[in-house]
Design a protein that fits this description.
mainly alpha
Length: 395
């Protein structure tokens, strides 16, 4: 297991043994983190025997790098035999037509669900439940990618409803699904349930697109103004006569984390292509209204100095859309004074996905809430504290 996995495994053990000593699970987690920060807890792997679960995960990793199909399947079966809840290995055993693959996935999910009902059903915070939620998210993603939006929706909805922090990012798939199925009520529900959704272009773009498609122009203008404010790079795709889908598809990279960037614009728009191509006036209307917003903002600049500063800011922020775009975003957060400076790239990207790239944003979260994010461990928390982050106080 990784360092972070060990941390959460020890956290889960602490909760199992001490939950009855605290008013709530949240209080137990807070107590564990406090003890860890004082050096009273050591999540590093012990020198004891390797568990069947760890052996199973090692076999899974070996299988993923095995090119021989027969050997790969043998390794996967051995992994499952050691640890029957290795759902990732089960998933990799799927083969055949789309129908056969889905049938296999649903069989695995049914068994996983029965096992999940035996847990505390806390959600992502419970280390024991994570394989189940990862499985559910994976199945939803597969169904989404093959176009079965209605079947994918309940998988993502469960991930969203059972995890207040939405560590897996189910909200983004849900916004795309509700936009493409013209479900205004569900789309606005998810949008307003998500903290600071108006600061996240991957939330704003789907709802804005749906608003345009449904003729909700006033709402669309407001969302477009939010988009203008949070991601000035959006105007780069409005310089053509129609959506530059080929270019956006080249940039599209759903596994990359870079908050309010070229990548997130592409990640938001590409899944919406069926919606956007079906609304003839969408591109023209958005381009015209976006231009109006830009002019209104320019008129509010009163002095030549303000105009020059605005131009410089836009020039500094805009990233062009070259062929073969690279996705090394770590430098975005290495500027002096950034709360993410000095952190490893992966935690930087994870925090960026959550919108936690500024001192102000982090101040709205408790230390416990940030520590509960998948991929964020004690070292990252300590790095944030060292950078001067002041978390929201526990109630």
């Amino acid at each position: 297991m990784s360092f972070n996995d060990d941390f959460f495994a020890n956290l889960q053990q602490f909760i199992d043994e001490n939950a009855d000593k605290y008013p709530s699970i949240d209080d137990a987690v807070a107590a564990y983190i406090e003890q860890y920060n004082k050096g009273q807890r050591n999540p590093k792997k012990s020198n004891g025997p390797i568990s069947d679960r760890e052996k199973s995960m090692d076999l899974l990793q070996e299988a993923m790098y095995e090119n021989n199909v027969k050997k790969q399947r043998k390794l996967l079966k051995e992994a499952i035999k050691l640890w029957p809840d290795n759902y990732e290995a089960e998933i990799l055993l799927a083969e055949g037509s789309v129908e056969e693959v889905i049938k296999h996935f649903l069989t695995v999910h049914e068994r996983a669900h029965k096992n999940w009902l035996k847990t505390d059903q806390v959600g992502w915070l419970n280390f024991e439940e994570r394989p189940y939620w990862q499985l559910k998210y994976f199945i939803g993603s597969y169904l989404f990618n093959v176009g079965m939006l209605i079947k994918a929706e309940p998988f993502f909805r469960d991930c969203f409803d059972f995890n207040e922090m939405d560590n897996l990012g189910a909200r983004y798939h849900l916004m795309s699904i509700y936009a493409r199925t013209y479900n205004w009520e569900a789309a606005t529900e998810i949008y307003y349930q998500t903290p600071e959704a108006s600061e996240d272009d991957m939330m704003v773009i789907p709802l804005m697109s749906l608003a345009v498609a449904l003729g909700e122009f006033q709402t669309a203008r407001k969302l477009l103004a939010d988009l203008y404010r949070i991601n000035p790079q959006f105007d780069e795709i409005l310089k053509e006569d129609f959506w530059p889908f080929e270019l956006l598809d080249e940039i599209y990279s759903p596994d990359q984390y870079s908050f309010n960037s070229v990548t997130t614009i592409a990640n938001a728009i590409v899944p919406l292509i069926p919606l956007l191509t079906g609304v003839d006036y969408a591109y023209g209307w958005i381009k015209e209204e976006y231009g109006k917003i830009a002019k209104q903002k320019a008129l509010k600049l009163k002095t030549p100095k303000q105009v020059q500063l605005a131009k410089k800011k836009k020039k500094d922020n805009v990233i062009s859309f070259p062929s073969g775009v690279t996705t090394d975003f770590a430098n975005n957060y290495e500027a002096e004074g950034s709360p993410l400076a000095g952190l490893a790239p992966k935690p930087q990207h994870i925090l960026a996905l959550q919108g936690l790239t500024s001192f102000e944003a982090l101040a709205h979260k408790t230390q416990k809430e940030v520590a509960a994010i998948q991929g964020i461990g004690p070292r990252t928390i300590q790095g944030l504290l060292d950078n001067g982050v002041k978390f929201k106080k526990e109630k």
